[in-house]
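QA checklist item 7 of 12: single-chain prediction sanity check.
[x] sequence parsed
[x] length recorded as 150
[x] structure emitted
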Amino acid sequence: MSDERPAQQLEILKIYLKDASLECPSAPSIFNDQGQPQINVQLGSNTTAVAENLHEVVLTLTVTAKIDDKTAYLVEIQQAGLFAIQGLSDEQLQHVLGAFCPNTLFPFAREALAALIGKAGFPPLLLNPVNFEAIYLQRLQQEQQTITQH
């Protein structure tokens, strides 16, 4: 009986916009406000095993822009990808799903976000690159600290 894993393989099968929403609750009066918007960006990712060796990763970006106490816009993008992955250890798989896949999806999410904000009549928001590798390692470290504390 062989204990060998199949060859390591990672294939991007599909990248798609799973959900998008835009709210401009203070329009049209907000267009007269001259203040600099305060931007709040929230980022998250979720992974679902669709079938054996097949995973959906959804990167969620939520951006809220406020001028004074009024919400100029609220945008949420769920950028998804379908990834065929095999031949990895559980640890390697979690790393690919937690860092590589969100990193692959981010430019698509950033473009969709900028397009929606522009269509709402606001200057496009250009998000800085995100280091998903660092985020993944930080989350892993926090999980290990939680385990050792219990």
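[x] summary fact logged: The chain has a mean pLDDT of 92.
[ ] second reviewer sign-off
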